[in-house]
Amino acid sequence: MNEQIANIEKAISAFHIGSSEDAEQFRLTFLSRKGQIPALFEAFKLLPGDEKRLYGKTINALKQKAENIYKEGVKSANQKQQQSVDYTRAVKDLPFGSRHPLSVIRDEIIDIFARIGFDVSYGPEIEDDWHNFSALNFPEEHPARDMQDTFFVEKDPDFALRTHTSSVQVRVMENTAPPIRTISPGRVYRNEAISARSHCFFHQIEGLYIDKDVSFADLKQTILYFAEQFFGKSKIRMRPSYFPFTEPSAEVDVYWGLNNEVDYRLTKGTGWLEIMGCGMVDPAVLQASNIDPEVYSGFAFGMGVERIALNRYQIPDIRMLSENDMRFLKQF
Ligand code: PHE
């Protein structure tokens, strides 16, 4: 035993740790599970009781010493390594990232609405029935509630992946007293067949404005302002439409023009491009969030970010926006 201890002690003292590789070698030789010190403890276990008393302290001290040497060695190896880094060396070809086209568009839209007093609100992507449907005046038998359109949470069908960010607006209405001016960007999910033009998830930006005496004229003016700022177009038209949460409701087209072949393709030869849905917030929706429809009125609108990106950048396939191919993303 004495000899074994002495040998290890000698070996430890003779070991020079000059690098992190040395330190690792030291650890393997002496401290690791198959190293010499654990082996020493194994041998110690077999000693008769009185000898145990004799050696116990010594080998514990030896172990302590080895651990200290190891720690010190690692520390100084690290320091040495840091000193040897040449911070002035030129970096070799580090690829630059670029902003994702969807982020570019989202931030532009947020900016445009920020200038007329809209703040930004976010909410959960897994949403309950109340915020995604019921509070928005969706009747029980509405097809959007069908398994075909909505991804429900299997274990609890009261929860689903939100199908629009109108759910965020409900949350804002529940928690804020009017006046409310907010836009809600975010990812939404619909159980749709994936193709070049549609995907089972995409991004929306929805807007909500609630105050006293808000009229359809305010809605139209706000959208016109947006069309001018974002598309640089000064002509819009509104076509009657239907949403459970707005009444009246409309689809908005912007007059894109017919100046070249792309315009013809984009607008199917009409010159008009559909950009969003909108309408006056249904009184039942205000009521559901405890806002008095006798006092307040408001408008809401919602648009798909992917659709705008496909048009603006002439991207042929919506899937390119979520594939994260660097060759594609680098172009923006
Ligand atoms: N929530 C609607 C959708 O997802 C868009 C919309 C928002 C329409 C607000 C009208 C008003 O299609």
Gyration radius, in Å? 34 Å
What is the total domain count? 2
- Beta-strand level of the residues, as a percent range? 15-25%
Total helix count?
A: 13
Task: Describe what is shown at a glance.
The protein is of the alpha+beta class. It has helices at 2-14, 20-31, 36-45, 49-83, 101-114, 129-132, 166-175, 216-231, 261-266, 283-288, 305-313, 320-323, 326-329, and strands at residues 119-120, 126-128, 159-161, 180-189, 201-211, 236-243, 246-255, 272-281, 297-304.
What does this structure look like?
The protein is of the alpha+beta class and 332 residues long. It folds into two domains: 2-83; 101-329, BirA Bifunctional Protein, domain 2 (2-Layer Sandwich). Helices cover 43% and strands 20% of the residues. It has helices spanning 2-14, 20-31, 36-45, 49-83, 101-114, 129-132, 166-175, 216-231, 261-266, 283-288, 305-313, 320-323, 326-329, and strands spanning 119-120, 126-128, 159-161, 180-189, 201-211, 236-243, 246-255, 272-281, 297-304. α1 packs parallel to α4, α2 runs antiparallel to α4 (49-83) and α5 packs across α11. The termini are far apart. The protein binds phenylalanine. Phenylalanine binds next to β7, β8 and β9.
